[in-house]
Amino acid sequence: MYSAPTDPADQQRMRRAFARSAETLGATVTGPEVWGWHGRTLSARAQYPDQGACWLRLLSAPEDKAAGKLWEGNREAAALFDGRLRKPLLYDTTQSSTDSYAYRAELHEYVAEPVLSASPVLRTDPDPSARWWESLRTDLDYVSSTPTDRVAVRQEWVDRAVPRFLHMPGPRITDCTTAHGDLHTANLTSLTPYLLDWEGFGRAPAGYDAAMLLAYSLLVPEFAQRIRDTFPVLKTEPGRVAQIIVITEPLQAASSGDHPELVPALHALGDELA
User: Fold this and answer.
1) Are both 157 and 256 inside the same structural domain?
2) Which residue range or ranges hold the Aminoglycoside phosphotransferase domain (predicted)?
């Protein structure tokens, strides 16, 4: 879970937009506020006349940047995957703008299960069941086989970022599949599991989701080994390429202050893969 924006003006701006969006959608907020990364989103449990308990999520961006992959991701994922795998259904959306900011509000199915971890970085072993792992593998297989024009990872970014953060040439992406795009334990629930937060899904190197889950779980060796056992793609050459690309992302985030505790383990895995 993330903190509210440090600027009180941003907090109030988001809260006003959240309240307006709830009114527009006919939803009544019933739960505490939950902030997303760097205050970019604000969410809370809500009550919706047609569906009962729901999850209201507000995404904000400057008006000139309110487009593209992240802005449209959850809506486009709903069209492809709702009812076909274990993800919260998207019930309704609304969009607005004011004071040079754009807002997209999404009303999702409420999932009562807790997530595996409050942070993307796993710190203790949640030890999910064999059925949990089988369900996750089945759903990711379905995702990977679903065609999409969306692109989650571009070769141009790989060519820039891998040399900068891993001091090796960026590998060529030769095998692509569709990926959830942000698969870590804060986006997986503990029982079913449900796969949450689809805004970044798209075409990515084969094995990308498994590699992402592994990268954020390196501090818990038992859980990391279960990932390797469940997803044999990680032992293949495309899986090696996916891991090199994936670990560059949290290293880039760490350069801005996010999850520095993960950096030594990421570098150790990078040395292994090289």
Assistant:
1) yes
2) 99-226
